[in-house]
Design brief:
With 304 residues, the chain is an all-alpha fold. The protein has 14 helices and no strands. The longest helix has 34 residues.
Length: 304
């Protein structure tokens, strides 16, 4: 009879110091998560509160509205609302920007992942240099103006089309793929482009989803480039509209509306409603990408 050898599984015991560190980290992250969620819930509650209740309970924190209403959202998203126009601009910018950025990132990361690329190390050092130093705000503005991109949607997309950090993650992911797949495909007659689009990219779904989420959040939250390059209010993104509301709104309008029969939303309600509207798309999309997000980042970090 054959004897079955049983191997003992080694278990690494945590020291008391390690356990105390883990408990401390857990408590700290729990407190930070509770504070973050409570702040966002307070914003949501204010956006759902009627004007009379907000005036009555001014200064209250985390008070669930007794009569929740969507009147603030109807007011903000009413006819000819700048928020709707800005939402369309932001969605268009995000979709075009993510598609272009992923395309450029893949085309740069794939050849740089090859060891036999002539001058690959020097090219990689040039890209890495741009992570440490850049031309500055004024030279960038002059470059955008020289290409006649001012007051166009492309001024918000082309200058930041490539993130070197994301390209390095994508390059590391490509380097972690088995080289035998590409060699067998080339034996069958595939060119480098066919290998990339027919074999490599179908296997790169998790990494593409993670990098795409990075680019999408960056485009969605960006506003400073619009401040520099866009003068036409019809091309303002949503974050720039939110910035204008935060900077120019005041509570003085509440006093003039108290005596009227129909109260307009307070400035705080308008700000909170706009914040919820601007945050909602990312909150909806993230759960569907989250599983690919973790997997893509881990796969892209296997090799440097």
């Amino acid at each position: 009879m054959m004897k079955v050898l049983k191997t003992k599984r080694t278990v690494i015991k945590e020291t008391k110091f390690d356990q105390s560190i883990n408990v401390s980290i857990f408590i700290f992250l729990s407190i930070l998560g509770i504070l973050t969620i409570s702040v966002f819930l307070n914003v949501v509650f204010i956006s759902l509160s009627p004007t009379t209740e907000l005036i009555k309970n001014a200064g209250a924190y985390m008070r669930f509205p007794s009569r929740p209403t969507l009147s603030n959202y109807i007011y903000v998203l009413g006819n000819n609302s700048p928020v709707i126009k800005a939402m369309i601009v932001t969605i268009t910018r995000t979709v075009l920007g993510v598609a272009l950025s992923l395309f450029v990132t893949v085309l740069i990361a794939y050849p740089l992942s090859k060891k036999n690329l002539p001058g690959g190390k020097a090219i990689m050092m040039i890209f890495f240099f741009t992570m440490l130093f850049n031309g500055g705000m004024i030279p960038t503005y002059l470059a955008v103006r020289s290409y006649h991109l001012l007051d166009t949607l492309w001024a918000l997309i082309l200058p930041g089309a490539l993130s070197v950090y994301n390209m390095i993650i994508m390059r590391s992911f490509f380097k972690s793929l088995p080289l035998e797949m590409e060699e067998s495909a080339k034996i069958d007659g595939c060119t480098d482009m066919k290998v990339l689009f027919k074999i490599i990219l179908p296997l790169s779904g998790p990494c593409l989803a993670a990098i795409g989420l990075f680019y999408a959040v960056g485009h969605w939250n960006s506003f400073f480039d619009a401040v520099m390059y866009i003068n036409n209010r019809n091309l303002w993104p949503l974050q720039l509209i939110l910035r204008e509301i935060l900077l120019t709104s005041s509570l003085s309008s509440v006093e003039t509306n108290v005596s009227s029969n129909v109260l307009a939303p307070t400035s705080m309600a308008i700000m909170c409603t706009t914040i919820v509207i601007s945050s909602l798309p990312i909150i909806i999309v993230y759960p569907f990408i989250q599983k690919h997000f973790v997997t893509g980042i881990m796969l892209g970090a296997v090799k440097g």
